[in-house]
Specification:
6 copies of one chain form a homohexamer. Chain A is α/β, with parallel strands linked by helices. Chain A has one domain: Arginase, Chain A (3-Layer(aba) Sandwich), CATH 3.40.800.10. Helix content of chain A is 30%, strand content 17%. In chain A, α5 (197-202) links the parallel β5 and β6 (205-208). Chains in contact: A-B, A-C, A-E, A-F, B-C, B-D, B-E, C-D, C-F, D-E, D-F, E-F. At the A-B interface, α7 and α8 of A face α6 of B.
Chain lengths: 311, 311, 311, 311, 311, 311
């Protein structure tokens, strides 16, 4: 039997033993597994409140509560895939460019081993070096769940690398194909009325929270599925897409967001997309309450794991 | 005038005086009242995070904020029933079987005095000894509001009594009639794809949160009313049926649950059912924030009190 | 260019510098601006949990996160109005009547200078002296967003001035016109089945949360717009109208309230009303979690600023 | 056997049952007991952060953890005195003068019944009406444990009644004898270099925290005992005398205060004083952490109970 | 080079990677190491507030902050011993006797492999089955740092196994030698004036906190060293020996305890004792603040590791 | 009269109005004042837990509670110096070197205007660019209150600028004179037994917490005064020198530190030193409890202000 499965909660209580993602085995060699879950504990791209560096550890902790079978499909990723906790990607909290390189190198190895990565951030800038590894040969389609588009050009007088800029850089570097990008959940007051114009000009489809409210679940997810089609797709889930009352542990909270049920329902409608990698970012434990954001993140990560496992 | 009424908030401020349920008089003799509210401060059946032993005290504290008349019916239970705080049922935190006996004996006396009990837990295992007293002569119908069915067989190598097993035991002991049981709000990943099969085979009606979302309030509550009809019915409300963002103070949080408004609306549609007892369980103050779970519990307990009082 | 604008977050990080409302300039002379945002740090009218005296400071703090352009209209109040932080209104925490006078005098000067005031409370009793200044010459129409009507007569044996009585006093003093008052979101158990009768007899339109659920957004806001028409209108927003899970930092929480998205949607439908002043009250930081209530309040205050600026 | 004893923790677990002071019986008639413990849930005299109105309830809650015998003397007050929880004194949160009267009347009855009162506040202004009852016939000696002398004259332009003024009023009203007053623990920056002059001119002995550090426990308590001698003495313990790291739940925290061990040691050296009443004030649960201030207060109250019981 | 060393914080940031005790390797085979650190996540012996089941995980988390060399000796246990995280001992949260057996069996294997165990609890009852393994052949000397002696006979009507009884049982079972037991830090009100008599009659040396204050560090630790001499000794450190302001995360807080500096100083004076095993118990994360108790526990565990390593 | 004084708390309540340092006027021109208090909201040099970027705002907030006259000297800095809140120094959260430059330029202007700066950080790396401005012409003497020496060479593979390295850089750049540096309070386990060797070789006097315990207050402060003499001296106070139970809001907590009273006493003995600038760093509000660290920081900052004002 596949040894890359979680410890069973009916044998070892959920609060017991060392916390790994979903209580999975630790496996340092990505080649041995189909899907690797990776922590990326780094937040030096954050422009407001830092803390996402502590995200991977607390999501590991909370993920002990997630069981093995999806409650709607009644299927389990662990029945069809070998999945392990690969540990944390190397980072340097004191040097941004050094970290971007370290992350990229780490993921190039993951790609080489044909392992599908699910990354737990870390701030949203970590998506850029991951995409440099995954989208190197051919630009990917992408689904972004977020309250911000993260396509600003520069901050604080010309600085190009922050958690508000990764997808502008990724498009400039041809890692993702703007025509096949959908950004869902965008909201909150703007710096400038033209904040979204650049993204739209590239061909990105932006669905604000207000537009979502008008279209509803079915129409919205139909639109996402249509745009992305069967392309190889990257899924990037910023926890701040969820309302900060539900997910307070994040650096740039925007009130009026998705409920957890809406978020789960949206992801479940995307199960025909060909996801080849994913990240879940911006979980910031210092601002969390009772670890509730980490618990939500762990449950969302399980939905993502099911999507990537196609169960 | 009925002396078994709350102290009025317009005379004594809500933060003042000793905290009893709804600011009701303390009455040790159940015979003197129609409805008794009882604390059951015990959580040794808990498999994950303990703390529900502290539930009764904090629900008492929060219940000071609940006024006397229902906002929709404009009626008050205190105009038609004598209601008191009966104090806490005896328990033994260090011996599970001793506690099951102590609770059963306590409730057998309640039954003998024809007092309708509303119990504030404690973990969900407390429902079992209560049902042993209330369902002794004839199996009851039951409505369970919960995220779990609590019908697992055993835990940790054959152990039969935990807060995950009470209703399996109660059915085996013929205390409740599975054909007249509805379980609403079930959700969360499963240990096994067959987790719900035993319950369904007994004839229990399970309505998952996903099925609720599809059916909506009216269709769901119609189904519950149809199944239960005019049977003598036990109401058991696990606070973890409500979304953990709303009610974080609980031991086994499952994200993506009911909002408080949905919960209130569901209960209000069940006002033709013949409830002869109820419990509200799994409020765990050590994991609560700002006592918000206790405040919700107090408001739900008031809805239940109105249901049992038929106002 | 208009100097009464916020510091830009792309230049000075949001966590930097002294916290003023929306990072606006401090301006002690109301005459210099079109709209003045004013703190009223006082809560001696509170009958349950005090703490709203700390509201203005924490709303200032949280408001640093609000940017300049409305996400739906893509317009900014700062492009059409001069707006400043006028500091705090004088109060006396140790003498209620002295404070009512101090507030009234302060706002009479605001009225004289033709400055439109947005006040951040403070408990709901602060609305009374503000209305004594704004409604002196002609009774105003009023929209109240709240879980309580605040029209009780007296408390604790005849005392007429608490945060539960301001609108009864304001009607008695002919400062507001009951026929043009709408109160939205009323809920929670009552002291007496006749609690709402006096208000209804005066001609006030009360829409409970239950009625809102039945009517929905469009019908409800249509009704509000119809009743108020083009009258000069005061907007008073009690943060406890929002569900306490979203906005826990308040003194008299009533479970089962509006979500933030509902609240935003309601306000946005009222953009044809002629608002000539507004307050946002009952934010109580000692009971807040993670400043989430203050953040919601800051975002609601921005919606109100847009309404008053007509952008 | 004396029925006015706590419920035993070896029978009923400490977290169980309704929270009364030290798990004592509730007794509404003061005549039946030797010592009555009374809540005074009122804080309208507070000039900075309110919240002490919630003190009595949380001290009751925490006091469940205090057992029956003093750890040094190995004696118990319950072996020599009848002690009960008398409930809360009537107050009016909306009218200061009305409350001062209500408290005075309540305590005049206590005095008439020859019951020794231990009062749990509430803010420090509650000492004034209590002293009006206890010191009516003859001015009392007094020991104040506090970080402030609470002898300011007026606040906010002439207002004479706040929690910063009670002992100035009490001396003016001849309720306490300044020559027999010791104030211990005074510290923190001052409004004016002459802040302490008035008190000293009356003959009050002020021992600042710095002076305490120099003199040490023995010399300090010797001085207190010498000054007070065998006079009938009132003990007033402001929880803010203890360092706010230990006791954060208070309205006017002054850093650099006594540890709990120092506080216990000081009280234990005063066991020859003839205390005829006491209060413990300024416990403010909204600013507490983990109820640690309430737990300290409960333990200090037990020391005081032992002092008054002379065990 | 010894591979059983922590990951270096100068290479991998302290917040990164999976949390093990002191960032040590996970090693399931005790034979491979000299000293094994073991979690015992179980608290069913708790009579008041549960939660110590979560202790091992949070102490692991906090221990990332502890570096490698002792600040006074400038030596490191990792230079002289092979040390690893052995994971958690098996437990059964739903059956006390089953757990006592599981723990004993686990430690019998540890003893057989000649590995010195440092156990992180869990409540204090876990010391009993550990001593059943370690003291089987010859009763051990013991140093207890605690606010309670944990030598009560029974609870709740005759129940013999709780966290208040382990050392009574251990003496009855001849696992420890009462003449060579020192209990330090005992304090808090008592159930009965004779609470300590049984222990003293067995020959146990009890040093209360008051006695410690009189004797001081040197005299106290000299006494401990004299009594224990060169016997094989078990060290059991109950975190509630430390003052609950410093270490609030525990189930039975007793105010007025040791500071952390006192605690460190005491342990450092015991470095000539022949410790052959140790536990650190009663860390209860649900009652902790900011993980400060876990951080203290991690630092105390490092002192213990240095004692056992004789560095 | 000097207008650069705090608003008086007897007129405007302490919770009222916009939060500036000590309620001082905001003054953007340093030339107008003798002493300027400056926020430096930046923490990108942090190697463990970030958050000190939020320090200045919360210290401003807490400083409202500090009155005007020193409790021991009975003197006030505001009677002898013009003091103002200069606002925050410019920073760039996304570029470390750019920030070092921005800070240096800002302080060069302060020096040019002969204003004495008291800086509220920010992490400890901010001391470096400040010293580049203050120590440019002649190396300064320095007193460091801290649990770490912050003289490591590099982190994470050669990176030279973090909050663990500022004083190594400052000595290399000849900004401070190692012979006239005293570092007090050093403690905590070490990365390497030689961690302190470099500093000692330069001639720095290091007084560990253990050495302080042995020497006591008088001997320690005598040593500091002797070493520093009458040199122009920089005072740098890392809040983590204080025990983390007292001051939990910091990034690298080391248990077993100074109490607040010890810290105050130490500073008060240094009042003959010629301080020409100071900073207080590492206050990290996301990890604070109840703002207690900010309150301590505000009180320490007042002590520092008195030292620099020579009152």
């Amino acid at each position: 039997m596949n040894k890359y499965r979680p410890i069973e909660g009916m044998t070892v209580p959920r609060f017991a033993d060392i916390a790994t993602f979903f209580r999975l085995p630790i496996e340092k060699d990505p080649e041995k597994v189909d899907i690797g879950i990776i922590g990326v504990p780094w937040d030096a791209g954050t422009t407001n409140r830092a803390g996402a560096r502590h995200g991977p550890r607390e999501v590991r902790n909370a993920s002990s509560l997630v069981r093995l079978y999806h409650p709607v499909s009644l299927k389990s990723p662990y029945d069809v895939k070998k999945v392990a906790d690969l540990g944390d990607c190397p980072v340097n909290p004191a040097d941004l460019q050094d970290t971007l390189k370290k992350i990229q190198i780490y993921y190039e190895n993951i790609v080489k081993k044909n392992t599908l990565p699910i990354s737990i951030g870390g701030d949203h800038l970590v998506s850029l070096p991951i995409l440099r590894a995954l989208g190197k040969n051919k630009p990917l389609a992408m689904f972004l769940f977020d309250s911000h588009t993260d396509t600003w050009d520069t901050y604080f007088g010309g600085f190009k690398y922050t958690h508000g800029t990764p997808f502008r850089r990724a498009i400039e570097e041809n890692l993702i194909d703007p025509k096949k990008i959908v950004m869902l959940g965008i909201r909150g007051a703007l710096y400038d009325p033209k904040d979204l114009d650049w993204a739209k000009e590239q061909g990105i489809t932006i669905i604000t929270i207000d537009e979502y409210q008008k279209m509803g679940l079915k129409e919205t997810t139909q639109m996402i599925n249509n745009i992305i089609g069967d392309s190889e797709t990257y899924l990037t889930f910023d926890i701040d897409g969820i309302d900060p009352t539900f997910a307070p542990g994040t650096g740039t909270p925007e009130v009026g967001g998705f409920t957890v049920r809406e978020s789960q329902n949206i992801l479940r409608e995307l199960n025909s997309i060909n996801f080849i990698g994913a990240d879940l970012v911006e979980v910031s434990p210092p601002f969390d309450l009772n670890n509730q954001t980490s618990l939500i993140a762990a449950n969302i990560a399980f939905e993502i794991l099911c999507l990537i496992s196609k169960v």
